[in-house]
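Hi there, hope your week has been kind to you so far. No rush at all, and the record is pasted right below.
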Amino acid sequence: MITIFIIFLSVYSCNNEELYAVEENLLTEEEEEVPVEEEVLDVVDIVEAVNDTIKTSENKAIDFKPYSNDVNLPESILLSNTTPTYGTISVNDNATPDNFSDDTIQYIPDSSFSGTDSFEYEICDANNEANCDSAIVTIIVDPVVEEDIATELKAFPSAYGFAANATGGRGGVVLHVTNLNDSGPGSFREACKDTRTRTIVFDVSGTITLLSPLGNEPNCTIAGQTAPQGGITIRGQRFSVRDNTIIRYIRFRQDREDGSLSMSGIGAWSKNNLILDHCSVSYGRDESILFWDDGTKAGTHTIQRCIIAEGKTGIILGSGVSAERRSNSGQYSFYENLIEHMHRTLILRVMVILN
């Protein structure tokens, strides 16, 4: 009886150990985690196009690189653009069609256009057409600013009107009036009769009495403002003006010493480029000023900032009375003048007059 019991216990003990080992193995397998393979996604850099503003001048083309400030540009791209409204654009690949980074765009504004123009461009990744962005290029076209110096130099800075560009004695000799005599060396008459291009200046002031009519030769500037204090007065006989003459700051006064009642104070017949500035003309026994064209050529004349006073007729500008002469009577600018105490004031037979 004792022997049988021991064998039974031994058998029972072995079975329990095996069962425990099996259960332990099962528990271990359950506790172990099975690794899961995750899918790795490629990182995509989003294309970012940046707006640009460029400036140029009227009628002037400009080259620029719109892509230089754009962000995350792929190696291979697709480009497209709209058309500007007031100009044209063209792309220059600089002989590297596969490398857009050195591309430039040339904008040419339309002729005489100034203001603001624009166009839009789009950049896409050639390998991912969903990765795109666009930007706007704004072009400011400035107008051409005229230089302060005119392309044709004026007779003097404040010269106005049709004869404003008279050259007078510019570039010629300077002649000095050194006395108030009617004629002779150093006289006003001698300077006027000189045939060279010349500017007449005054070393004296006072009254010069013309004993006979005087006409100056062409291409002359008479600069009365150069006289010492008191200035210059021309009295007596008529003074006649020739082509391309500038007269400034002179007083003209007629008298009746010869008994004539039909004499103009200052006159010009069929001449061109005459300008009278800051002068005064008084006591004309006929017209104080007579600028007359005979119809053979249309002259240009300016009378500005002058005083015309105390005469029979203030001023006559233009042609004779015939229709043929009136059709070619010249161009006159009559600007900021004072007319006073005249028997008759202003007779105009002109094609154009500016006031």
About this structure: Helices lie at 2-31, 188-193, 323-326. The chain has three helices and 25 strands. The domain at 52-142 is CATH 2.60.40 (Immunoglobulin-like). The two ends are 157 Å apart (CA to CA).
